């Protein structure tokens, strides 16, 4: 065996070129022949860690991932992954990146261990290393004895795990996961998200995970990139999203309007939600203020609940 | 590297989670990855690593292809002459065996991956777009080459086993070498056409069908045109027979098998082939060979350039 590559996928040390951003795009555009614009001058930076790529179906998520891997050429703008240019250095990018496609991509008549070993070879691992890492990757995603069975006999959840394992087998520095929870039931979704979170935090691999369900992936992300119609809606760290998302739900059996007026007088800016009021939590004192207001008005308090506003709701308000 | 959880002395036989380990070993470059894909494809083209059922056809066609060589060894051992020419082998048998082998195994190499949409998993790795069909084609040419050349070598070994003296062995060797080269032409052209046709469909049955139909129809058509075009009648060609009509001489251009044979005769092959000697039309067979090969390679390249395979 020859042709050793100088590139090594070591842990992202201090000298790594990707210290700043793992993904960087500038005015990236992609138009399909049928006149469809998938990406429209998208400029975004993705930091190390787990980043959610959120958008409705057709927002351009899959197109972005394919351009980052060099599978599709962009029509304009630039993109870089791990400091490498997507148009010119896509081969090196693909050596350091693991990709989990959205759609079914597994042959039914091969055992998972054999399939992942083969794809490990295709990632550049020597034969023995490919075998070992295939077994390890399958174990990490929770497939043990089943891995010797043909993939065709697997449940949807197990297939998704094989897809994740094949992305992990080459020990990538960045993983691009396209809708990993697609087609899974609620329990399967939770398990898959746990797995992704573990790979991101324990394994120290940066992850870009796309989803059309914001509420689903916001729990595991450090950062969030929201795109719509191929344009960037918002990109920020999860903490800056959640800072404004802590709210208190107050429900009273009667006198809701009275309470709303009194809270407003005391500067708490309540907003109505179905049968209750939502109050922004600005400090620990907010709880006392609300309690005192209800007590002062002598209203029958039904419920006082701290809620984390889903990021989704924030967007509904912010975008017309 | 993550710390070990619950590590016990190895004698305890406890499975412990050793956490995620980074890979710090050697990483092979693109050429080595292509070689690995060639090797993997070559194995699957003969049914290795696919279960017993996948080996049936490769084994049967190989055995059948070797039968004339075995019969020759027996005949030569009993004092006879070599039964089969090196440059054509048993032409009809070779055509039949290759049609069956290619129709059965070319879809195994390319249609399966199309059917199960595995290609994005290849293209997201260091391989370039055309590396994939290139590796598949190389593997399939090697498989066809083995099927064509190993019986030729058996034929040679069976013959020289009884040869008297170095000059007789040298004579056999000199006859063998053009046979091996013609075998290479067969393997390259037929493997390329077979894979190109197979790559058009992810449905195995369609792929097999289109390959078998194309090869059989053109082969039969070439024979028909030969007859209609004046041919040389039935029965063995005798020395000094009237040269075949132009129609018969051109009939071989229809089928890849007879095209290769036209090239053989044009290049000086003397054994009797399925078509009359092309005479002055020989270069046309050379051109046709290149056209067919270019067409198959172009089709294959175009197929795997398409973005919808991602």
List the defining traits of the structure above.
heterodimer, A: alpha/beta, Rossmann fold, Alpha-Beta Plaits, 6-stranded mixed beta sheet, 4-stranded antiparallel beta sheet, 34% helix, B: 10 helices, 0% strand, disordered N terminus
Structure description:
The complex is a heterodimer of chains A (320) and B (310). Chain A has 11 helices and 14 strands. Chain A is α/β, with parallel strands linked by helices. Chain A starts with 22 loop residues before the first strand and ends with a helix. The N terminus of chain A is likely disordered. Chain B is built from 10 helices and no strands. Chain B is an all-alpha fold and 310 residues long. Chain B has one domain. In chain B, helix 2 runs parallel beside helix 5 and helix 3 runs parallel beside helix 6. In chain B, 64% of the residues lie in helices and 0% in strands. Classes of the chains: A alpha/beta (320), B mainly alpha (310). Chains A and B meet through helix 2, helix 3 and helix 4 of A and helix 1, helix 3 and helix 4 of B.
Instruction: Please state the average pLDDT score of chain A.
Output: 86
User: Number of domains in the coordinates of chain B?
Assistant: 1
SS content category of chain B = mainly alpha
Fraction of residues in H or I helices of chain B = 55-70%
Low-confidence stretches of chain A: 1-18
Q: Going across the major beta sheet of chain A, what is the strand order?
A: 6-7-8-3-9-10
Task: Briefly summarize what is shown.
Helices cover 34% and strands 26% of the residues of chain A.
């Amino acid at each position: 065996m020859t042709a050793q590559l100088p590139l090594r996928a070591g842990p992202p040390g201090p000298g790594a070129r990707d210290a700043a951003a793992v993904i960087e795009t500038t005015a990236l555009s992609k138009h399909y022949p049928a006149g469809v614009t998938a990406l429209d001058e998208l400029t975004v930076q993705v930091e190390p860690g787990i980043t959610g790529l959120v958008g409705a179906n057709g927002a351009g998520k899959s197109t972005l991932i394919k351009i980052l891997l060099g599978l599709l050429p962009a029509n304009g703008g630039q993109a870089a992954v791990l400091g490498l240019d997507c148009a010119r250095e896509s081969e090196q990018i693909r050596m350091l990146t693991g990709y989990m496609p959205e759609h079914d991509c597994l042959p039914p008549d091969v055992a998972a261990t054999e399939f992942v070993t083969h794809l490990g070879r295709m990632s550049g691992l020597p034969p023995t290393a490919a075998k070992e890492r295939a077994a390890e990757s399958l174990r990490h995603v929770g497939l043990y004895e089943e891995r010797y069975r043909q993939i065709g006999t697997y449940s949807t959840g197990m297939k998704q795990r094989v897809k994740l394992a094949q992305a992990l087998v080459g020990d990538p520095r960045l993983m691009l996961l396209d809708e990993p929870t697609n087609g899974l039931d609620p329990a399967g979704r939770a398990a898959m998200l746990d797995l992704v979170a573990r790979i991101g935090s324990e394994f120290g691999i940066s992850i870009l995970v796309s989803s059309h369900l914001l509420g689903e992936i916001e729990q595991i992300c450090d950062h969030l990139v929201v795109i719509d119609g191929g344009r960037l809606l918002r990109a920020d760290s999860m903490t800056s999203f959640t800072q404004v998302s802590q709210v208190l739900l107050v429900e009273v059996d009667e006198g809701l309007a009275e309470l709303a007026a009194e809270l407003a007088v005391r500067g708490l800016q309540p907003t109505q939600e179905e049968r209750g009021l939502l109050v922004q939590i600005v400090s620990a004192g907010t709880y006392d203020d609300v309690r005192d207001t209800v007590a002062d008005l002598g209203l029958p308090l039904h419920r006082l609940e701290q809620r984390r506003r889903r990021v989704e709701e924030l967007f509904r308000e912010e975008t017309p | 590297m993550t710390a070990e959880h619950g590590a016990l002395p190895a004698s305890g036989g406890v499975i412990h989670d050793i956490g995620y380990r980074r890979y710090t070993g050697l990483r092979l470059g693109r050429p080595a990855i292509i070689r690995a894909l060639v090797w993997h494809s070559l194995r699957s083209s003969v049914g290795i690593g696919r279960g017993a059922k996948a080996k049936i056809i490769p084994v049967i066609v190989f055995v059948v292809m070797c039968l004339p060589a075995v019969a020759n060894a027996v005949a030569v051992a009993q004092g006879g002459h070599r039964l089969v020419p090196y440059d054509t082998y048993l032409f009809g048998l070779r055509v039949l065996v290759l049609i069956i082998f290619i129709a059965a195994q070319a879809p195994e190499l390319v249609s399966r991956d199309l059917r199960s949409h595995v290609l994005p998993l290849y293209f997201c790795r260091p391989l370039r777009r055309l590396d994939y069909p290139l590796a598949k084609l190389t593997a399939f040419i090697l498989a066809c080459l083995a099927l064509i050349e190993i019986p030729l070598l058996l034929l040679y070994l069976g013959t020289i086993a009884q040869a008297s003296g170095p000059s007789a062995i040298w004579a056999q060797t000199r006859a063998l070498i053009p046979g091996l080269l013609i075998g290479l032409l067969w393997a390259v052209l037929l493997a390329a056409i077979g894979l190109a046709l197979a790559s058009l469909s992810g449905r195995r049955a369609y792929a097999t069908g289109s390959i078998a139909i194309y090869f059989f129809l053109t082969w039969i058509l070439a024979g028909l045109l030969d007859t209609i075009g004046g041919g040389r009648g039935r029965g063995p060609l005798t020395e000094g027979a009237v040269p075949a009509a132009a129609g018969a001489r051109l009939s071989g251009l229809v089928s890849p098998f007879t095209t290769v044979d036209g090239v053989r005769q044009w290049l000086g092959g003397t054994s009797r082939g399925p078509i009359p000697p092309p005479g002055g039309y020989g270069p046309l067979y050379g051109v046709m060979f290149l056209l067919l090969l270019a067409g198959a390679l172009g089709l294959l390249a175009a197929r795997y350039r398409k973005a919808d395979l991602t």
